[in-house]
Structures are given as structure tokens and as C-alpha cells.
Amino acid sequence: IYGYRMSLWAEHLGMLDETFKEPERLECVRKVNEIANNNWSIYSSEEMSLLHGHLLKYPVQIDSDGQISSLPECENFPDAGVCYLPRHGEWQLSEVFSFLYLELIVQITCKPFT
């Protein structure tokens, strides 16, 4: 299982790191989010560059009331020009929880535990 997990890290993130050996640790979560955010920046920039792996931050933000919105100045996927958020009122509960989970992972890197 360990070898399989490490190969998944390498495939999806384009690298291996010592922090991936303990994925339950906050340091690992922060590292994965850093890579995902960097990949989103590369993907969404005007300049063509290679991504470091396949994992990207999904371009949404969730406010403290649970409202899901697109990132500022990014309502469509850059390469396809299609909207990635359903119209208001079309969210399924499972989709909301998936987005909340993704945003929680990202926000862990920004807010210290109290």
C-alpha cells in the first residue's frame, strides 16, 4: 500500500517529497495545496508552461456562509472558455460537500488552528 500511495503522489504531483510519507500531517496538506495552487497559476496564466503533475486547485472560493463562487476574474476555464460553476440553485448536496472539503484543505494553509 505504501508503494502504491507513493506512486500516486509522484504521478499526480509530479514529484516525491518526504512529507508525502505522512499524508495525515498538516505539513503534507500544505505541501499538496502549494503544488495545486502553483499548478493552477501556471494553467491559468497567459504564458504556456508545463504543469508539475496533474493536480490543480479547483477555481472556487467558499465564504464563511458556505456560498460558492468563482475566483475573481476567472468565471470560465481558461482553455475551454466554459463555466465551471452550475447556475444558482443547481448544486447537489454532495457537490457542496465536495467543494467544502476542497476549500477546507486550501484554507488550512491560510488560517492557523486556534
Can you offer a commentary on this structure?
GO terms for molecular function: phospholipase D activity. Pfam families: PLD_C. Residues 17-81 form the Phospholipase D C-terminal domain. It is a single chain. The chain has 114 residues and is mostly helical. The chain has one domain (2-108). It has three helices and two strands. The protein is flat, with a radius of gyration of 15 Å. Residues 106-114 have low confidence and may be disordered.
How would you summarize this macromolecular structure in one to three sentences?
The chain is mainly alpha-helical and 114 residues long.
Q: How much of the polypeptide forms β-strand, as a percent range?
A: 5-15%
**Strand count, sense and closure of the main sheet?**
2 strands, antiparallel
- As a whole number of angstroms, the C-alpha radius of gyration is 15 Å
* Overall shape: flat
Class inferred from helices and paired strands: mainly alpha
Number of helices: 3
Average pLDDT: 72
Number of domains: 1
Helix content: 40-55%
Major sheet strand order: 1-2
- SSE order, as H and E? HHEEH
Q: How many strands appear in the DSSP assignment?
A: 2
Query: How far apart are the first and last residues' alpha carbons, in Å?
Result: 34 Å
